[in-house]
């Protein structure tokens, strides 16, 4: 699976504190190109990323601005995830 995120969305992903190792590598090994970043990995890793983002937003571990950018990432990964993340 491949997802392209903006610089602001990537910055919000980088602000996630202590993600699981597989999610950490997904974020850290992204490929920058023309001001955007390509996340590439297995579907299961993206599912784990959605869970991490859900926790970040649900528990209030991130700023409102980062929450907005993280929701944008969720929409790119799986638009239906916004239902269970709370949108």
Describe this entry's structure for a reader.
The mean pLDDT is 94. It is globular, with a radius of gyration of 12 Å. It has 87 residues and is of the alpha+beta class. It has a three-stranded antiparallel beta sheet. β2 (31-33) and β3 (36-40) form a beta hairpin. 59% of the residues lie in helices and 15% in strands. It contains five helices and three strands. The protein has helices at residues 7-14, 21-28, 43-58, 64-77, 81-85; strands at 2-6, 31-33, 36-40. The N and C termini lie far apart (24 Å).
Short structural description:
The chain has 87 residues and is of the alpha+beta class.
Order of helices and strands: EHHEEHHH
How many helices? The count is 5
**What does the radius of gyration come to?**
12 Å
Strands of the widest sheet, in order across it, are: 1-3-2
Shape: globular
- Indicate the low-confidence ranges by residue numbers: none
Please identify the structural class as seen in this structure. Answer: alpha+beta
Oligomer category:
single chain
| Total beta-strand segments | 3
Largest sheet: 3 strands, antiparallel
Q: Compute the average pLDDT.
A: 94
In terms of DSSP E residues, the strand content is: 5-15%
Q: N- to C-terminal separation?
A: 24 Å
- Helix percent reads 55-70%
